[in-house]
Amino acid sequence: MITPDTDEARRLRRGLASALAEKGDLTDPGWRKVFEKVPRHVFVPEFWLGPDRRLTAADVDWLSHVYTDDVLVTQMTEGAATSSSTAPGLMLVMLHALDVTDGARVLEVATGTGYNAALLAARLGSANVTTIEVDPELAKLAEERLNACGYTPTVLTGDGRAGHPAGTPYDRLIATCGFAQLPYAWVEQVRPGGVIVCPLGWGTVRLTVEDGGTASGRFLATPSYFMTVRSNGETGSVPYPGDPQNPDERATHLDPSAPFRDDAFPFLLSLAVPGTAQASDLDDDRRVIGCRLWAADGSWARVEGDSVRQAGPRRLWGEAEAAWRWWEEQGRPGRDRFGLTVDRDGQRVWLDSTDHLLPVAG
């Protein structure tokens, strides 16, 4: 059932637009007009606030939660979040970075709820927007909701890592799920001079496609944390394996709370120690007292105080210590000083210039 638009929903949209404009996330008049027009609530008829509380249109506080600058988890699979509606402020930062012009042809990877596709269609026209989603049920629901709002972009089901060669060339490509490696197929499918905006690690990168099959650009200053790209039937995240038996143990001079005091280091860690998940352990006063790193290959590390335990084929805390030393030696640079170059040989993360590469473990 499609929830109709109402005066209250329109009022809440205008209020959120004003708040995001004041924050600096909504500066383009064209995007503000679109944001105030497209009803987010149509695309999120239900969502979860934590693992145990599900809100629907029948709940009195549902609409007020919809029009906040919050991520809304819209699908849970075996207790893990597998789809969400991105926080509107971050969504708008990414759309601004996309730097669209009238008539630009856009490929969106990860349709999800369809809300971002609706914003693109409202701004550029439905005929100029193609969106691809790995989950057939999500794609079907998104298309129904888009159509109910009067938007008819091309909605495809498939693995977005392959892009959509039949629709090339695109002027812009935007992804709304997280990647560890930016697919080179995207570079091939966006015209020279075109732009790619993609969450990578714990950041978002904006690349310009160049002649000769290369794309290069910098990370945005805005923090971003996205669900990892998945294949159909997978959660996309690396589940915590539990503490293994008989791990190696040694001392460490790196305080386990240090990596989490500055947002820039977890971002760096996600790029320098790729393929890993990270989490902090808190005491009752929510102070960091330990941290964990783990990877899909069974590598695991847990740090408490000055003691680290590790298991698996990689020594993840050793990799984290090396990344910390490098970051300290560079003067603790922020995320917007980092950049990425992608070509046929792979991807390279750099600091300040393309010849100053980030050492990558693994």
From TrEMBL:
The keyword Transferase applies. It holds the Pfam family PCMT. GO terms for molecular function: protein-L-isoaspartate (D-aspartate) O-methyltransferase activity. Keywords: Cytoplasm, Methyltransferase, S-adenosyl-L-methionine, Transferase. Gene3D superfamilies: Vaccinia Virus protein VP39 (3.40.50.150). Its EC number is 2.1.1.77. One of its GO terms (biological process) is methylation. InterPro entries: PCMT, SAM-dependent_MTases_sf. GO terms for cellular component: cytoplasm. Transmembrane segments: none annotated. Residues 232-254 are annotated as: Disordered. It is found in: Cytoplasm. Belongs to the methyltransferase superfamily. L-isoaspartyl/D-aspartyl protein methyltransferase family. This is Protein-L-isoaspartate O-methyltransferase. It comes from Streptomyces monashensis.
